[in-house]
Amino acid sequence: MEKLALSFAAVALVSGAAQAATPAYPDNPDVIWKGNFEGGAASLSGNCSYGDNGWCNEQSIRPQQIQVVDDPVFEGHHAVRFEVKYGDAYKTYSDERSILTPPLQMWEDEGNERWYRWQVMWPQDYVGSYPKWDQLGTPSARSPGGSIVEWHHSNGGTETGSAPLYFRGGDKFIEICLVDQATSACRETISLTELVRGHWHDFVMHAKWSSDPSIGYLEIWIDGVNVLPKHIGSNKYPGMQNYLAIGLYRNAHIGDPNLLYPDGTHVYGTDGAPGVAYVDGFIAGKTHDSVVPPGTLADPTSAGSASGTAAPTNPGEPNSTTPVSRAGIGFPQSGCSSSGFQSAWLALPLFGLFALRRRRLAA
Question: Considering only CA atoms, which of 80, 41, 32, 84 is closest in space to residue 62?
Answer without folding.
Answer: 84
